[in-house]
Amino acid sequence: MSNTVKRTARAGTTEPAWVRYTLIGIALVFMFLFLVLPLAAVFTEALRKGWAAYWEALNEPDAWAAIRLTLITAAIAVPLNLVFGVAAAWAIAKYEFRGKAFLTTLVDLPFSVSPVVAGLIYVLVFGAQGWLGPWLQAHDIRIVFAVPGIVLATVFVTFPFIARELIPLMQAQGNEEEQAAIVLGATGWQTFWYVTLPNIKWGLIYGVILCNARAMGEFGAVSVVSGHIRGQTNTMPLHVEVLYNEYQSVAAFAVASLLALLALVTLVIKSVVEWRHERELKAAAELPPERPSSLVVPVPAR
User: Fold this and answer.
1) Beta carbons of 211 and 158 less than 8 angstroms apart
2) Rounded distance between C-alpha atoms, residue 98 and residue 96, angstroms
3) Which residues contact residue 294 at a Cβ distance below 8 angstroms, ignoring those fewer than 6 apart?
4) For residue 279, what is the enclosing H or E element?
5) Do residues 197 and 119 touch, judged by C-beta distance below 8 A?
6) What is the pLDDT along the chain (302 residues), one digit of tens a residue?
7) What is the DSSP secondary structure assignment for residue 186, as one 8-state letter?
8) CB-CB neighbours of 64 under 10 Å
9) How far apart are CA 284 and CA 14, in angstroms?
10) Which of 264, 9, 247, 221 minimizes the C-alpha distance to 123?
11) Which of 193, 196, 277, 286 has the fewest beta carbons under 10 Å from its own?
12) Which of these, 126, 296, 155, 140, lies nearest to 227 by C-alpha position?
């Protein structure tokens, strides 16, 4: 084999070197202009007046209320989407039933509907002049312009992430192992816990990470249903907007930098998950082909 063929095989492409380097250069320029540079600008502006002003902006009561509300919203929305995502993916990937295509379309609905429209839908349903508004007012229940409305809007815009990560994964895996577990006498819960869950754990973790990132950074839908009540219904993105509109740029960028740090932490966790998943795949590929695979499922005593 010639050196040229060897280099081409290692590169995985037949294009000349200058084409590869040009494409890599274009990608790096785009990443620098649209990712690295804005991120650097956020931290530069946040620290423009020093660390004292930075910490003062973060220690402000309204900022703490926004941080707390953002974390509470994500802590409620992500587990709800986790349950829905696993159930929807299992139903779509493992079973055939009437209306399956319609359910798949509903899962993708938040990807095609503007978040602002989603927020308006909740205002139309739960607002004072909405369909359920008079009944909610009569029973002193607040949905819109309160925390429940923020949670509902966040759940709506984030619920496809986990399901969309799991559906193709579970479809590719098939249901042979689940059927084998049931034949061996396992219950439905045992089949899920010992067979299905280990097979989807990395996709599940990846979906949870994406869902959490979107929940903490959501602006459009939350902006409509929150009412912008400072210290009560402003999440971190909304608080950044309020500070920026009031020309408190250092405080706005300080809170924005905290959001950016959360995004970077999410990116690191995502990279670790992908790295560990690749290690498991590589270790599984290196197993001897003659080694039989075993399906171990605890079976209840008869």
Assistant:
1) yes
2) 7
3) none
4) helix 249-285
5) no
6) 555 555 555 555 667 888 888 999 999 999 999 888 988 999 999 998 889 989 998 899 999 999 999 999 999 999 999 999 999 998 898 888 888 888 888 888 898 888 999 999 999 999 888 899 899 999 889 999 999 999 999 999 998 999 999 999 998 888 888 888 888 888 878 888 888 888 898 889 889 998 999 999 999 999 999 988 888 999 999 999 999 999 898 999 999 999 989 888 888 888 888 788 788 777 777 766 544 444 555 555 54
7) -
8) 12
9) 30
10) 221
11) 286
12) 126
Helices vs strands, H then E, count in the chain: 16, 0
- For helices 100-112 and 61-94, angle between their N-to-C axes, nearest 10 degrees: 150
Cα gap 93→8, rounded to integer Å: 39
C-alpha pair distances (Å), 164 with each of 81, 86, 91, 276, 298: 11, 10, 13, 21, 30
